[in-house]
Amino acid sequence: MKKLKKITLHSRLYSYPVYIGYKTPLKKLSSILKTLHLGPHFVVITAPAISRLYGASLQKCFSPTVKVDQIFISDKEKDKNIDAVQKIISHLLQLRAHRKTCLVAFGGGVIGDMTGFVASIYMRGMPFIAIPTTLLSQVDSSLGGKCGVNTREGKNLVGSFYPPRAIFSDSSFLKTLPQEQYQSGLAEVIKYAIIDNQKLWNTLHTHHSQILKRVPSILEKIIVSSVLTKKKFIEQDEKDFSKRQILNFGHTIGHALEAHATYRGITHGEAIAQGMYVAADLSLQKKLCHPKTAQQIHSLLEKYGFLKQDLPTNISSYISRDKKRGTWILMKDLWKPQRVPIPPEVF
Ligand SMILES: NC(=O)c1ccc[n+]([C@@H]2O[C@H](COP(=O)([O-])OP(=O)(O)OC[C@H]3O[C@@H](n4cnc5c(N)ncnc54)[C@H](O)[C@@H]3O)[C@@H](O)[C@H]2O)c1
Fold first, then answer.
1. Ligand 1 centroid, distance to 137 Cα (angstroms)
2. Tens digit of pLDDT for each residue in 181-195?
3. What is the CATH number assigned to the segment(s) 5-176?
4. Which one of 19, 75, 210, 263 is most buried, by most CB atoms within 10 A?
């Protein structure tokens, strides 16, 4: 029997388990849902492409005694908006979903963010579980309860803090993930390795080729390690007023680059990787870190295929629209991050 790892995350609303493994989380889905007293009506929110790949196998994981409906939505970043939320809500009403109906976020971060947000507001709150299918959603976006949508003015400007009742992170989904999306998730893994996790830093160096080949045992290792790092920060500061902001390393520039590209043609991870280059350079310019530290950060990013690019000249106007503008995460050394106030006009 292959192993199933369980990590419990604690939030102000409730504690919830994250199950991690290769094929094992889905095998256990039905029995775990029963122990969590979820159901008997589930509505899976997913995208057509994900359903084509995995919809039938997910369906088989539910007990035949429960009712499972599906709602299909676009999982493109440009469609992560209030219109999509309204569409899901209308559909839920047609399906006669009620406060005990359980939503199932089945997809990457876009599906997860929208499903969580709908669950937080539909009839003043209903349960949801997450079955993340991208590396980024398994190591980052499904954890910690942040959910929401973009507005024309910027990214994730409307949302809630509302965690799922359980997360099922099955790394077998990652075998079909397009390379650019896999690499995008690796950027967040690299971020954890830089800000806090020396063990993960070492794993990224010593198991480089296995990571690129997506070997299941190594995937499980980096997912578990990433979840433990995120757990450490979100449990100390769930609402993101202080310590959790450390997780924003690389995101000030990253979010600005995504907005500049109007959320097209650049993955979240690619943008964050460029942000980490800039944050490392700025740490050096501010004499916070030794040149060797900045160099080590650059080298790890390069090792995973993120090459440094020039920033657009008008980037500061996009930085000033970011929710956390003004607070940068810089590095004093590897695993020693610091929050530093810097005005957007610096760029
Ligand atoms: N809530 C948070 O804390 C948080 C944190 C980080 C990022 N995010 C958000 O997450 C979103 C990005 O999420 P993402 O990187 O998971 O990308 P995504 O949800 O945009 O998915 C990327 C693409 O991969 C496809 N895909 C998904 N799983 C697949 C699989 N197993 N096989 C083949 N194709 C698959 C999708 O159909 C989509 O085309 C952004 O909106 C970002 O703002 C949220």
1. 6
2. 999 999 999 999 999
3. 3.40.50.1970
4. 75
